[in-house]
Amino acid sequence: MLLLEEQEKGDQEEQNRASSEDKSMFDDNHRKKTRTMLDYYSNLQDYYTEEEGNDRIIKRKKSRVLAASVATITAVADSQSEEKEKTAKPGGNPGSGQHRRLWVKDRSKAWWDECNRPDYPEEEFKKWFRMSRQTFDTICEELNSAIAKEDTTLRTAIPVRQRVAVCIWRLATGEPLRLVSKRFGLGISTCHKLVLEVCTAIRSVLMPKYLQWPDGDSLRKVKEDFESASGIPNVVGSMYTTHIPIIAPKVSVAAYFNKRHTERNQKTSYSITVQGVVDPNGVFTDVCIGWPGSMPDDQVLEKSALHQRASGGLLKGVWIVGGSGYPLMDWVLVPYTQQHLTWTQHAFNEKIGEIQRVAKDAFARLKGRWSCLQKRTEVKLQDLPVVLGACCVLHNICEMKNEEMHPELTFDLVDDEMIPEIPLRSTNSLKARDSIAHNLLHHGLAGTAFL
Question: What InterPro entries does this protein's entry cite (predicted)?
Fold first, then answer.
């Protein structure tokens, strides 16, 4: 028993000694982990403290840059004010205080600067802009009040001549806006905006002056010129309808689908119509723009303001000559379209064709001079009437100024004419047409080419 007690006591002491060693080892590990964690948190705190310091430094730098920018802008504004004050005094140099805004992309304007020089060759200028420099200057002067902009603190306004040049170049060449942008050293969106602004100004400022219905002495002169050329009295205009190709619209696609052009060209075509009346010199006196390309000529005529004026009696006693796509009316004179024509009817058709060719040739020059009308354009459908109206006004200005077209710009005009479902709208006009045909034949004024 004594031996067993001694052995149990020894085991108990051994166990206590092992436990104390384990405890001391655990305490040492705990102290090491605690010391490691404290070191980690201390380093982390130092990192965040350093980052906060960097943020403060960055903020101070930003504040300094902002203050410098404000100082620069203020200096520019003060400099411009001083320069403007100098220009107001005798001997001041106008325009010396202009500065570009700080964020404008630097683009080259070398091409336009070259064209704008007074010693630039006249033939080259006329080739690019379809008109002489004198005519171009006249247009700029008349549009100046409508399109001129003033310089601001951060931006120099685009000059009127450059604004007009961008628009006319775009209409004349039909170049994409990205190429126009590079040529004139302006942004693409700026060029698009300039084209619409100048076209709107042309329609509002120049159209009332250069595209108007003749009256008084001018109307008498038109009648005399047409009668001397054809022998047909009381003709006040030659009428024609052409189609302008467009990109398929997002709405009412079927209305703008041009079946005749699609069948002829073997390519899906969409278009809008332009109906115009011209005088003996090929100058437009009335235009109707924008009706869908699926409409035949007679329906476009019925929708036009010209038809409304005629219905009100403003065209009583006069004739507008049209092709076979128009109906015979009290004021619209068209050729005979039935089969087996008599000599008298053939001779009449030949003279009517001569008058009608005046309008067709005018439209051929219109499309030849303004190449943007020959292909599908980037202009939105709702903006097209403004652009097309501007083209007609510019055509009239060129015709009135006797601006000759370059032979390379000749355009072959092709438009399909469809005989209306109701070709005769007035029995009185039928009798009047027969009377005109007989008078032409008996007075030796009828055509003879058909023989």
Answer: HARBI1-like, HARBI1_dom
d(CA 36, CA 31): 9
Does the structure show a pLDDT above 50 at 24?
A: yes
Q: Return the amino acid letter for 328.
A: L
What's the pLDDT score for residue 99?
A: 46
pLDDT band at 182 (very low <50, low <70, confident <90, very high): very high
Mean pLDDT computed over every residue of the chain: 85
